[in-house]
Amino acid sequence: MLLLVYVIRNEALLLLTHLTREAEEIQKIVVFEGAFEKIFSIIKEEGGSDGDVVVQDCLELLNNLLRSSSSNQILLRETMGFEPIISVLKLRGITYKFTQQKTVNLLSALETINMLIMGGADTDPGKDSNKLANRTVLVQKKLLDYLLMLGVESQWAPVAVRCMTFKCIGDLVDGHPKNRDILATKVLGEDRQVEPALNSILRIILQTSSIQEFVAADYVFKTFCEKNREGQTMLASTLIPQPHPTTRDPLEDDVNSMLLRGICSGETDGDLETCCRAASILSHVLKDNIQCKEKALKIVLESHVPSMGTPETLFQRIVRYLAVASSMKSKDKSSTMGKSYIQQIILKLLVTWTVDCPAAVQCFLDSRHHLTYLLELVANPAATVCTRGLASILLGECVIYNKSNENGKDAFAVVDAVSQKMGLTTYFSKFEEMQSSFIFSSSEAPRQGDKPLTRTATPSEAEIEDADAAKAMNKGNEDHPILVSLFDPSFTGLVKSLEGKIRERIVDVYSRPKSEVAVVPADLEQRSGENEKAYINRLKAFIEKQCSEIQNLLARNAALAEDLASSGRNEESQGSVQRSSTVMEKVQMESIRRELQETSQRLETVKAEKAKLESEASDYKNMAAKLESDLKGLSDAYNSLEQANYHLEKEVKSLKGGEDPMEFPDIEAIKEEVRKEAQKESEDELNDLLVCLGQEESKVEKLTAKLIELGVDVDKLLEDIGDESEAQGESDEDDDDH
């Protein structure tokens, strides 16, 4: 009877699992009926991860209910909590024995944990807040301890389980500062064999033989270092060069300089596999952290055999390993595959290191061999498309972040070397080839996650162990797991942004001379104490320098025209992508020519306007001087008037107030002056009257003589005239009286 109950229960589990895969309404009904409690009750009854296929069925049903529903995740978190699912990860019994069913049960439980960490479907509006809350609660419930035990300390756990565990750890700390700090404080081991959890994960990265495990563990460091300057600084502080003593404490040496020893391991055994893995970790440590970059540049490494070599910086050592990687002879198929990603991981480190770091560019260019090798790598047809593309990006960074003025190491020298080696058109085509490659373009598309574990999709034990080989060989070397993790969206976005800056800067550097001659009028004038011969020689040198620069510009323009013509001839064979690129370059060149002509015309216009403005300024200066002089005269006149007015006002006040008798005017003097003026006027009038009287007397004398000639008695006539005058006078007086 009991067996029948179990059979019915198991069949009901299978039915619910099938019904809840896609039907959201059925999922809600099942959850409402208390499915979570029943699922975890069955898992506990069956023995957790050590249980049989029934545990797998329960976890599959649980995953169906949580996969695309934030509301169901919230309900689980706020009712039962996450302890039941976390407890499934707890190892019981013999920890080094992992059957196929136990492995599948653990993978299913880790899949559930990963769903909770991711917070639900991408289209769910409450995904971000739910994701943050889930990650916080999971770490509070000691999930990190179980994951570290399962992925790091359980050496017998299958690779697939360890990889899934590292993915969960990486997702837990991704974008969560508090969880990152907690991970940094975790320690593993017992007694004196204790070390930080990050060091244990680093050891796995450097020593594991599994490519998938390396990729998964590397993801932990990537998410830990992302926007975590304190964590990056802490990891950079472990980059301590160690001497080469005959005896040492391995654990102590590992803790202090494991990362640095991993980078330098290729110096001792000739195998760059460990070196490139350490380089991947170093790229996470240095990303977007200028302080860590500059600190790493100061690290000086001794040669493995001090008597056979000179010390070199860590940066130069890594560049040398890049050259060694390209020259290694492949012994088997695996080494051929490894050669490709080793070069690209080292190139990614160098690209990341030199971003916004002129000191790193200077360190790279300190050795002429570095630039020569990099040019050879860009032009090497045997190298992969992405290798040539990353080398081109690194070469471009030596231009845009180059602050040196030293001849042979400045940006002009790098651009000239590129132009002479392959031409700018060929160089720019490396960017397009890389971006059109499968691995680069696939990084922009959403990554498809692993298929959910079901009874029909349960991998066999052999398939679990051979997962690395299956994935590594899928689609050949282009789909290599390490390359897929290398070209993540963050790095491809950086490469695209750098490409635009590189194109613009190289065209700018190439289209103008190295040293610009500033035509200052003072330089063209004869200096004091300079004789005619020296003056003429200086002018000749000046003109020769200008002619040299003009010839240089003409040569550059000819080279650009030749590149454009060459690309035009090969346009049909290069395909539509390169045709569009050639057209764009032609448009850019034509635009540059027009801008040069317009700039020259504007320069002449500016010179003419400057001369006109100087003339007008001189006229205004003279006018201002004249106005200033006139203003001074007006000011003096105004001051005089003010002074006179002051004196007059003072006199008026004195007259009105009678305060000072000495100030009264002399009245007698005024009268005498008036009398003299009146007397003078009377004398003048009297003189006028005498003149008139004399004239009248003359007339009378003439008239008397005439009358006498006529026989008239003049005396008698005068008497009669006198009597009439008197009578007339009396008559007038009588009229007045009346």
UniProtKB/TrEMBL annotation:
<keyword id="KW-0175">Coiled coil</keyword>
<feature type="region of interest" description="Disordered">
    <location>
        <begin position="719"/>
        <end position="738"/>
    </location>
</feature>
<dbReference type="InterPro" id="IPR006955">
    <property type="entry name" value="Uso1_p115_C"/>
</dbReference>
<dbReference type="GO" id="GO:0012507">
    <property type="term" value="C:ER to Golgi transport vesicle membrane"/>
</dbReference>
<feature type="region of interest" description="Disordered">
    <location>
        <begin position="565"/>
        <end position="584"/>
    </location>
</feature>
<dbReference type="GO" id="GO:0005795">
    <property type="term" value="C:Golgi stack"/>
</dbReference>
<dbReference type="Pfam" id="PF04871">
    <property type="entry name" value="Uso1_p115_C"/>
</dbReference>
<dbReference type="GO" id="GO:0006886">
    <property type="term" value="P:intracellular protein transport"/>
</dbReference>
<feature type="coiled-coil region">
    <location>
        <begin position="589"/>
        <end position="651"/>
    </location>
</feature>
<dbReference type="Pfam" id="PF04869">
    <property type="entry name" value="Uso1_p115_head"/>
</dbReference>
<feature type="compositionally biased region" description="Polar residues">
    <location>
        <begin position="573"/>
        <end position="583"/>
    </location>
</feature>
<dbReference type="InterPro" id="IPR016024">
    <property type="entry name" value="ARM-type_fold"/>
</dbReference>
<dbReference type="GO" id="GO:0006888">
    <property type="term" value="P:endoplasmic reticulum to Golgi vesicle-mediated transport"/>
</dbReference>
<dbReference type="GO" id="GO:0005783">
    <property type="term" value="C:endoplasmic reticulum"/>
</dbReference>
<dbReference type="InterPro" id="IPR006953">
    <property type="entry name" value="Vesicle_Uso1_P115_head"/>
</dbReference>
<dbReference type="InterPro" id="IPR011989">
    <property type="entry name" value="ARM-like"/>
</dbReference>
<feature type="domain" description="Vesicle tethering protein Uso1/P115-like head">
    <location>
        <begin position="196"/>
        <end position="504"/>
    </location>
</feature>
<protein>
    <recommendedName>
        <fullName>Vesicle tethering protein Uso1/P115-like head domain-containing protein</fullName>
    </recommendedName>
</protein>
<dbReference type="GO" id="GO:0000139">
    <property type="term" value="C:Golgi membrane"/>
</dbReference>
<keyword id="KW-0333">Golgi apparatus</keyword>
<dbReference type="GO" id="GO:0048211">
    <property type="term" value="P:Golgi vesicle docking"/>
</dbReference>
<dbReference type="GO" id="GO:0048280">
    <property type="term" value="P:vesicle fusion with Golgi apparatus"/>
</dbReference>
<feature type="compositionally biased region" description="Acidic residues">
    <location>
        <begin position="720"/>
        <end position="738"/>
    </location>
</feature>
<feature type="domain" description="Uso1/p115-like vesicle tethering protein C-terminal">
    <location>
        <begin position="609"/>
        <end position="734"/>
    </location>
</feature>
<dbReference type="InterPro" id="IPR024095">
    <property type="entry name" value="Vesicle_P115"/>
</dbReference>
